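# nightly structure sweep
# worker-07 picked up a monomer target from the shared queue
# config: single-sequence mode, recycle default, output format = C-alpha cells
# input follows
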Amino acid sequence: MHALTMDRIFPARRVFVVLSVVWMIFTILGSWYPFQYQPRTVGDAWLVWMRSGEIHSVVKTDLAINLFLGFPLGLFSSLSFSRTSKNSSVWRGIFIAGLLLCNVFVLALLVELGQHWFGNRVPSMFDTAAQTLGGFLGLSVAWFRGEWLMARFDLVFFNNRMKPADAFLDLYFAGYILWMLFPFIPCVSPTELSSKWRGGMIDLSLVAEWNVDFWQAGYTVLVSATTAFPIGYRVASRSFVALTKKPWLNAIASSTLVVVLLEIAQVFIETRSAQLADAFWSCVGTGSGVATFFHFSGTQQSSFLASSRVSRTTGLCSLAAFTVVYLSMAWAPFEWLKSWAEISHRAKHSWSTLFSQLLSGNDFYNASNLFRTGMLSAPLGAISFVAFNSLLKRHLELALLLAAICVLVVCLGAEAGQVMSVRHSPSGLGAFVRVLGGVLGMAVAFRIMQPCRVNGCQK
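# output follows
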C-alpha cells in the first residue's frame, strides 16, 4: 500500500511534520547565509536564474548537495500525510504527491532567487532542478516503501511492547544503501570512467593508502568495518529466522555480496570513489556482525545489546578501548602546536566559524566527511551506555546521564585535541556532529534496551 494512502495513523507522523518544517528552515538559512541584504529587483533575480549557463559547466558536487537538500524534504513531507478514508483511491495519493512535489519546487525556486538578495552566491536553475529531483526521489521512496518505513519508525521510537532492535537494523540497512548510492548521478560514459580512474577515484589497491598515510588508512578501516557491522548482524538474524541450511555461511555470503555490490556501484556514481580497500574492510565488518549474532544466537536475538549479558569488566574495558581508538583517529599523527598563541587563535577561530560552517554552501565532500565522523561517534555513545548500564543495572536513567557526560567529554576532547594539532583543522561544526552522533548512538542503545526492562527480559 502506498505511503500517501495508508489506512493506519502512525505516531511517528507528528515527528515527520516537524522534521519537514525544520528541514525547510535549514535549507533557507543555509542558502541565504550570511544574510547580507543587497537591494535588488525581482526581474534581475529572474534573469540571473534563467541565464545559469550550460549544463556541462555545472559543478557535479553542487548538483549532489542540492539533491541532498531536496531528498529529505520530499521524504519527510510525504511521510507526514496519511489516508483519511479506507476507500480513498490511489489518485488521491497521486494528487497529494503532486502538490508536495510542487511545494519542493517552489521552495527550491524561492531559495535560489533569494540568493540574489541575501547570499553571496548566484541563483541557478540547475540547483533548483537538482533540489526538485531530490524531492521527487524522496517522494518515490515514500510512495513505494512508506508503510515499511513508518512501521519501523513507529516500532523504534513509540512502541514499548516489542523489542525495536530488528526494526532499527532494518532502517539502518535502508539508510546504508541510500548513502552508498547517493547522489544518484550516473557516471557511465568511458570518458567519465577514465577521468575517475586517472583521478584516483577508482583504486584497486589494498595497501597503497597505508604507505601514503598510515593514520588515514586506519581511519578508513575503522569507519568501513564499523558501519558494515550492523549489515552483517541483520543479515545473520534473517538467515537464522529463515532456518536455512548452514545459516552462518548463507549470512556471510549474502552480507559480503551486499557490500561488494554497493562498492562496485560507486564506480558508476558521480562524486563517489570506489576502493577495493573499502570493500575488503566492509566485508570484515559484515563478517564480524555475523559472528557476533551467531555467538549469541543460543539465547534471545539481539541479546548482545542487553547489558545483563555484559559484565562490568567487559563493558568498561570495551568503552576504554574504543575511546582510545576514537581519540587516536582524531589526533593522529600526533604532531602538536608548540605556541600557546597559535592554539588560542585556532580555538577562537573554530568557535567563531561554527554557524558559518553549518550554513555555508555546497560542499558535498565536507558533508560526506562530517557524516562519517558522526557515524563513527554513534558506537561511542552506544558502548558508553551499555558500559555504564552494566555497572548500574537497576538505575537506567543514571546510566544514561553518565553515558551522556562521557560522550560529551570524549567528543569535545577529540575536537579540542585537533585545535592543538598541526595536521588537523578544528571545527565547531565537527564538535557538534561528534556530539550529535554520540547522542544518537546512546539514544538508540537506550531505546533498544528499555523494552527489555519493561518486559522483564533482564534477569
